[in-house]
Each structure stands twice: as structure tokens, then as C-alpha cells.
Write a structure and sequence with these properties.
AGP_Transferase, 5-stranded antiparallel beta sheet, Kinase-like_dom_sf, Phosphorylase Kinase, domain 1, 2 domains, 9 helices, transferase, alpha+beta, Aminoglycoside 3'-phosphotransferase, Chain: A, domain 2, Aminoglycoside_PTrfase, 38% helix, 328 residues
Amino acid sequence: MDSRTKRRLSAAELDALVLGALGVGMVSSEELPDGFANAVWRLGLEDGRDVVLKVGPPPDLKLLTYERDLLRTEAMVYDLAAGAGLPLPALLHAGFDDALIGGDYLILAALDGVPWNHATLEPAQDREIRFELGRHLATLHTIPGTGVFGYPYAGLTGGTWREAFLVMAGALLDDAVRYDTPLPATILEIARLFHTNAAALDEIVTPHLVHFDIWPGNVFLKDGRIEALIDHERAFWGDPIADFVTPTIFGEIQGDDPMLAGYHDGGGGRGLFTHTTEVRVALYRAYLYLILLVENGPRQYPEESYARIRGLATESLVRALEVLRRAS
């Protein structure tokens, strides 16, 4: 979807970037429109390879507070996940504060498959993909961190998950004020609901790597299997259950979802699903839907593309806040 955060680069600039990074020139380019924040191109190189170039937003454009250094977060995930057995595209080069574009970029090996949301699957095949995704999430959540919760690159961290999440949520609500975002409840009530339910977060004592953007567009399929998980720039250190929110965005996860079975089969879930699960999930859903509403401030999506997302996010935020009201 088009956004003010997406850079516009000429063919000469694209060629110069890959030539400087990989030592080989470009012979073709195709901009990929599916992303929401970063500009992405599939590039054909002179040596026959195809790569994906991902360029961060213009450095002078004000973003949401948590979006600081998004591509550095993504590069961190690729580095930490090396050797973990996760299906990820290979990171070929990471450029930070590049003089040519005045910002950050990543070059990744191109994938052969298609996004899950573009694939035509039978119900049984879809269940198999969900089971496989659950296993991969279990693996992702075993990647060790440094003991800090939250978004390290954005400076939104805490010594406990409760502390970090409230810092993250507070920053997002500050952004909502800054961009005068229309919301279905007042900022003060939303902040109160976050704080009065935050004790449920004390169950999480170890920071786990959470992708927090595993929607079907970020899961590539090939030959009926998951080829790769992509777009790790929104990752944070926190509660693994948060990673079940985006695959079921605008809905609810059901107890018979094959993703849960795959997660348990992969060794995940022990001690995570407790009497606080409903409240924790509602907190993460509220946080996600707030992001979808507030991010239109800096991005200024085309109304014809964004109207449906705004409506779904608003309705879903209302439901999540109602869960938090009942639990307060």
C-alpha cells in the first residue's frame, strides 16, 4: 500500500546501492507494493541472481516512536536467528546511515514462493500450514536475548515485561495525541485499562523474541510448505503469546487451531497459557489495533486503501477494550 514512508529511488540509485554492497550491477527492477512501511524492490543482478532490496523511510520523516531504526531491528533478528533452523531469507547485506540514500537498507536473497494470502489452498492444506507455523513460532521463541524487555533500538525497554509493555503502550498513546488519531475511547481510559490490567503481565519473567507481524502476507509458501517468514522489523522482546495475535488479526484464536497444536509439538507453550491468558491477549490486541490506527498519522495512506483497515481495527479495538473493562 502506498505510504509517505516509502522512498522513491531512481534506477541509477538502485544500481549504485547493489553495486556498492554486492559488487555486481543491476539489470532489472520491480517495486513490490504489498508492504506498508518500507520501500521494497526485487532486483535482477548481472550475475543471474535475484535479490530483494528493502529501504527504510526517509530519515527526516517523523514516525511512530517504536519505529525508530526498524531495519536495524530486522537485521538483529536475522543475526540472532542464524543457525536456529527457522526458514528465513538470507540477509546478504545491511547498510546503515548509507551516504547515498541517507538512511538504512537491507539486501536479502529473493524468494521463489508466494505470500500465504495470495495462495489458493484447500482447507486441509491451510491447516497444515498453520501447524507448521506454530512449530516455527516455538523455535523463534527459544532464541535467547540479553534479559531486556521491549524494543531496544527504539529505547522502549524495561527490566520487567510489565514495565516495558507500559512504556511501549504509553509511547503509542503519546503518538495518538501527536497525530490527533480518532479512537473509540479516550486516551485516558485506554491508558487506565492498560495500567489496571498490567499485573497479568507479571507472569512473563523471561524475555522471548516476538515477531509481532506474522500475518499471512509475511509468510511465504512454496510447494505446500512454508518457504520463509519475512519482515521482522517489528520484533520485540516479551510474551510469546503476543505472536498469536497477528496470525488471527481482527479475529480470535480458537482452541482447536492447528497453530496451537504445532506450537506445542515444537516444544512451546509450557507455562504460558494460564488464567491470565485472556487479559494478556486483550492487551496485545488493543496495542496492535492502536498501531494500525495511529500509524496513518505519519504514513497518510490513500483513503480508498485504508478505509477498510481503519474500520476493522476500530471494531476490533472496541472488543479488546471491552475484555479489559470486564477484567478491571
